[in-house]
Here is the input.
Amino acid sequence: MAALVRALSCQTGVTQWIAGCSGLLQTAAVPGRCRRMLCSIFQRHKAGPFQLSKFCGGLIQANGAITQQNRSFYNTNKHLSAKDSLQPSEEKVGAFTRIIEAMGFTGPLKYSRWKIKVAALRMYTCCVEKTDFEEFFNRCQMPDTLNSWFLVAQLHVWMCLVRLKQEGRTGKYMCRYIVHCMWEDVEQRGKVMGINSAVLKEDLKRMVENFYAALFGYDEGILSDDHVLAAALWRNLFNRNCDDPRHLELLVEYVRKQVQHLDALSGEDLLLTGEVSWRPLVESNARSILKPLSPVYNDEGL
Here is the structure.
């Protein structure tokens, strides 16, 4: 085939065309389709150089298509790494939905909004009621204060947000309502503790700033190696006050296994029920992969 390409580029005579074609016929790698085209070349070589060039040009194109097809087939057999894995396609929405969402409204979702809000409230409840805050305070040597409680709660809320953002527009809507429930809960807890309204307002403002800064830090850490994740935990969870590296190692291991555990949950179950479970902070075999239990719900998703 290389001989045909050289001959075509140099516009050589019929004799060299025939010599190149005869060499290809003796090659075992030429497919049957190419062999039939070469035989037809020999039968039509009397038609002149122009017809011969046209025929051999078609042969080169056909062989190139066969080669390209074989290459694409070979590439599909390659093992995909984490970076080369297929990403979920963006959810397709109509022009009307894009317009109303650009104006600040919410377009039609996969499920009704009240079902999503109920599921979001349940998921936030799982973050604050199924987490052993006392164990966190004791093992990580954190003070038993409202701010420490909030730092541990926001870590679990962030892990839920990471999982829900994989569920398209419905998951993102559920994320917003989880954050709304969190701020309502923090404000109510501050009032129950008797914190002055002016002081509570300033504390909430500071918590909001720290929360969104923590989201960026945790996102960077979960996408990077353990060093970056440990730095994010040191800044946000420990408030730059952790002298024991074993505490950071314990929290890095905890975050990694919890994110893996949440990824194994069904997206449909999360959107309908909001039920999540948490693995213990300390485990004998933290690297083990646990199969989560499917939640039970009725036809209304309750």
Observations:
- The chain has 13 helices and no strands.
- The chain has a mean pLDDT of 75.
